[in-house]
Amino acid sequence: MTALLGLSRVIDSINERIGKLAAWAIVVAILVSAINAIIRRLFGVSSNAWLELQWYLFGAVFMLCAAWTLKVNEHIRIDILSSKLSKRGRDTIDLIGHLFFLLPFLALMIYLCFPYFFNSYRSGEVSSNAGGLLIWPAKGLILLGFMSLAFQWLSELIKRVAIMNGQLVDEHDHSGHHSPEAEAERLIAELADTGTTKGGEPPGDGIR
Q: What predicted TM-score, i.e. pTM, was given to this entire model?
């Protein structure tokens, strides 16, 4: 298990670095959009390449940051039952979800994306829009995104098994997704604490 945890740390490190680097594409997309708007406004000139570049950049962020998002446990969840279960129960649900839902989805997407990308690459596919960009790099990003997510799936599976065996502490146990009721109770408790003076008396206007 030690070797597997070492592999998990390597995967986590690589995907985190890829995600943080890809996140900068948002800034680049904003700059491209601003420059395109300025040139179009001042000189009446524009190009489909500028617009497609923005799409590619946003697509890169979406695909290449997915594995990092899974690593930090920030994908959206609809929590109905798991918050009422024990830690062991939540871990079991996560394990089942990874094995029977995420794995088949990733396997199917990678299987479909390989020919989708390679056929485009071999043909040198170009956008049908006038002045458009090459298509295959964008399709390659889709394949790369799902492959990095698959590696992160493996890392999360290793960590979940280690957590259930008591060999690893779950760093997301108290920072993740709480039920609305628990969150409401926490906020009420915080308000009660801030609304009480040090002496234990509620704040007032000083009039008795």
A: 0.77
